[in-house]
Amino acid sequence: RKEVEQDPGPFNVPEGATVAFNCTYSNSASQSFFWYRQDCRKEPKLLMSVYSSGNEDGRFTAQLNRASQYISLLIRDSKLSDSATYLCVVDTGRRALTFGSGTRLQVQP
Amino acid sequence: GAGVSQSPSNKVTEKGKDVELRCDPISGHTALYWYRQSLGQGLEFLIYFQGNSAPDKSGLPSDRFSAERTGGSVSTLTIQRTQQEDSAVYLCASSFRYRVGGLRSTDTQYFGPGTRLTVL
């Protein structure tokens, strides 16, 4: 079983739609959680950290459920520019971050 | 300010040749990481340097791969006797990661643009 699992998608949604991605992690000792965004042929960039209480940044909301070991990302009012691959990232405290394989989002006009 | 830089941006080599990839991390960052990403795949951890500690090499796929970090700053990833399956984008990241007592800081990593390696 992979340490971090994501649905690869693609998720094809129209502009203005709300879309949610989930991610599960296997290591219950994981300490920190993040969502990164990666555009085609570009490097990953931090989108937002995920806090236990849940956090929101504009149209983006991240949630953490430690009991069920999953993380979610909600995007409201999708824009064409949101099209990218979204990487779920977990810090188990052992070494480098562990990246999921990503969920691809395609927002269509 | 300057971000993480990598060179070359593209490298085409013949099977069996050695290659060196360079990473300049963000100034002051204590941790440096190498990953690789094959087409359409996720990031694969290779190696991690933290300050003056011995590097974590647990992700290196074979003994053909090695990395150094000189003076706690610039890092070089070397691949000897390259194989076609080594073709990938090699990404470097750095972070300001520290430990105070038993607590370790959250690790926000900043990535360089990557080196696209093609082995013919």
Topology (SSEs and partners):
The complex is a heterodimer of chains A (109) and B (120).
Chain A: E1 4-6, E2 11-14, E3 19-25, E4 32-38, E5 45-50, E6 55-57, E7 60-65, E8 70-75, E9 84-91, E10 98-99, E11 103-108
Parallel strand pairs in A: 2-11
Antiparallel strand pairs in A: 1-3, 3-8, 4-5, 4-9, 6-7, 7-8, 9-10, 9-11
Chain B: E1 5-7, E2 10-13, E3 19-24, E4 31-37, E5 43-50, E6 65-69, E7 75-79, E8 88-95, E9 99-100, E10 103-104, E11 110-111, E12 115-119
Parallel strand pairs in B: 2-12
Antiparallel strand pairs in B: 1-3, 3-7, 4-5, 4-8, 6-7, 8-11, 8-12, 9-10
Give the overall silhouette of chain A: globular
Relative strand content of chain B: over 45%
Of all chain pairs, the largest interface belongs to: A-B, 20 and 21 residues
> Helical stretch count of chain A?
0
Order of helices and strands of chain B: EEEEEEEEEEEE
Which class best fits the helix and strand makeup of chain A? mainly beta
Which sheet architecture does the biggest sheet of chain B show?
Answer: 6 strands, mixed
Would you count the extended β strands of chain A for me?
11
Architecture overview:
The complex is a heterodimer of chains A (109) and B (120). By secondary structure, chain A is mostly beta strands. Helices cover 0% and strands 53% of the residues of chain A. Chain A contains no helices and 11 strands. In chain A, the strands form 2 sheets. In chain A, strands 2, 4, 5, 9, 10 and 11 form a 6-stranded mixed beta sheet that branches. With 120 residues, chain B is mainly β. Helix content of chain B is 0%, strand content 48%. Chain B has no helices and 12 strands. In chain B, the strands form 3 sheets. In chain B, strands 2, 4, 5, 8, 11 and 12 form a 6-stranded mixed beta sheet that branches. Chain B has a 4-stranded antiparallel beta sheet with strand order 1-3-7-6, with no helix packed on it. Chain B is globular and about 40 Å long. The N and C termini of chain B lie far apart (37 Å). The model of chain B has no long low-confidence stretch (mean pLDDT 89). The chains are: A mainly beta (109), B mainly beta (120). At the A-B interface, strand 5 and strand 10 of A face strand 5 and strand 11 of B.
